[in-house]
Specification:
This protein is α/β, with parallel strands linked by helices and about 130 residues long. It has five helices and three strands, in the order ααβαβαβα. α2 packs parallel to α3. This is VWFA domain-containing protein.
């Protein structure tokens, strides 16, 4: 898990460590988003801080349970966080009506990371 709290410089070594980490494959939206939600809930309980941002980057699609989605939406409303999604090389994951679209406030699909216009759009949004 990598945390980059606002107001604190991350440092180039930490950013490179994040960018070079491979988690072994497989796609799950519930596992990482649940962990992110729990971190935001902890921060809210400790400092009453709301309105965090989650960035979800994926190269595949998957499902979530209906029960989990209800809990997700309740937490999102209570904690006021936003979710930015980036589907890399997975246009179906970002289609209208997809699970990823339902999870994200702002969703982008990118096919070519060397496309400077697409990369500029990502950095402008996130």
């Amino acid at each position: 898990m990598f945390r980059f709290p606002s107001g604190r410089p991350a440092g180039i070594a930490r950013i490179l460590d994040f960018a070079e980490t491979f988690l072994g494959g497989g796609t799950s939206y519930q596992t990482p988003l649940t962990a992110a939600r729990e971190l935001l809930a902890e921060e809210f309980d400790d400092t009453a801080r709301m309105r965090g941002d989650i960035v979800m980057i994926t190269d595949d699609e998957c499902g979530v349970t209906e029960e989990w989605m209800h809990g997700w939406n309740d937490a999102k409303h209570q904690l006021g966080f936003r979710v930015f999604g980036v589907a890399i090389g997975a246009p179906r994951a970002a289609e209208t009506g997809s699970v990823l679209e339902a999870l994200c406030d702002n969703l982008r699909s990118i096919e070519d990371l060397t496309d400077v216009h697409a990369a500029a759009d990502l950095f402008r949004v996130i």
